[in-house]
Specification:
alpha/beta, 5-stranded mixed β-sheet, 33% helix, globular, signal, Solute-binding_3/MltF_N, ABC transporter substrate-binding protein
């Protein structure tokens, strides 16, 4: 179902390329707006939840939300003006800010600098397809809002499929440094070596354009990343395909979460805001808007079981 929806998004991207992309594209009943004028789903302030926001955040009147815009649709990417960040992550971020009665300020950072910004206090909140891991819970607090699904994306037309660690033995696989998919791939490689098979040759790329060039030139066999972006790219380019997917938490169900600095006091009101948005249907409305309804969670959890340490 997700591939169908993301294929629709791909057609929407092409359709929005005229007239500055000001009008949303309507394809198969799904309206996709890639312009800076997002007309996002909105929510109203909840005074009881907002009162739980620590004073240092309330007094400045805004919620500074960091995230990477280097991913492909539908996560967090640039609108047709090449400067406004849009996507499912920004929609969720602005909804949370609405409930907390704060003005959202969306900041762009690389993946590594996102966490540096959280550590320094430059960002109050991180929403950038961040998976809960046991290691990360030592430094950060999490409030979940989406399931985490990963995908192996390879050049189209092959017969190779990935279902288990032995399927990537001896293969050249690209990942983004510092992600949970990197850890999964490292663990898989160690397992194949222990079984007497070849190690996986892991390559690191930070920009999607770089690993897609490497994929087309044959320098890598596949890329391991978030399933929504891989499925979208496969539908858009017509040159790649998803050859395997699974939970981003490997042995446990991975969950994507809003991320705050440990003990900042912000995670509880954020979680309560997310649960209100889940209950009133706003959360589901945003996921449907971007074709990610099957990644919905029934409730937001604080610091659930995450990807285990090595």
């Amino acid at each position: 179902m997700r591939k169908v929806l993301l294929a629709v998004l791909a057609f929407g991207l092409a359709a929005c390329g005229t007239a500055g992309g000001e009008e949303p594209a309507e394809v198969s009943g799904l309206s996709v707006n890639l312009s800076p004028q997002q007309n996002r789903v909105t929510a109203v302030k909840d005074d009881k939840i907002a009162a739980k926001v620590p004073e240092k955040f309330r007094t400045k009147g805004e919620l500074v939300i960091g995230g990477s815009a280097g991913t492909a649709p539908p996560l967090r990417f640039y609108a047709t003006d090449d400067k406004t960040v849009i996507g499912v992550e920004t929609d969720i971020a602005t909804l949370v800010a609405d409930v907390l009665g704060l003005k959202p300020r969306l900041e762009v950072a690389s993946w590594e600098n996102l966490f540096v910004g959280l550590d320094s206090g430059a960002y109050d909140l991180g929403l950038s397809n961040i998976t809960v891991t046991e290691a990360r819970t030592e430094k950060y607090d999490f409030a979940t809002y989406r399931l985490d699904t990963l995908a192996f994306e390879a050049k189209k037309g092959g017969t190779w499929k990935v279902k288990e660690p032995k399927d990537v033995a001896g293969k050249v696989i690209a990942v983004t440094s510092g992600t949970n998919q990197e850890k999964i791939l490292v663990d898989w490689s160690a397992a194949t070596v222990s079984a007497g098979l070849k190690a996986t040759d892991i390559k690191y790329f930070q920009n999607s354009s770089d690993y897609y060039l490497a994929l087309q030139s044959g320098r890598i066999d596949a890329y391991l990343g978030p399933n929504p972006t891989s499925a979208y790219h496969a539908a858009t380019s017509g040159q790649t395909e998803v050859i395997g997917n699974f939970s981003g938490g490997a042995a446990v169900q991975g969950k994507i979460a809003a991320t705050t600095k440990k003990d900042s006091g912000l995670v509880t009101p954020v979680q309560e805001a997310l649960n209100q948005l889940i209950a009133n249907g706003k959360h589901a409305e945003v996921l449907k808007r971007w074709g990610l309804s099957d990644e919905a969670v029934p409730t937001s959890e604080i610091n659930p079981q995450g990807l285990p340490k090595s």
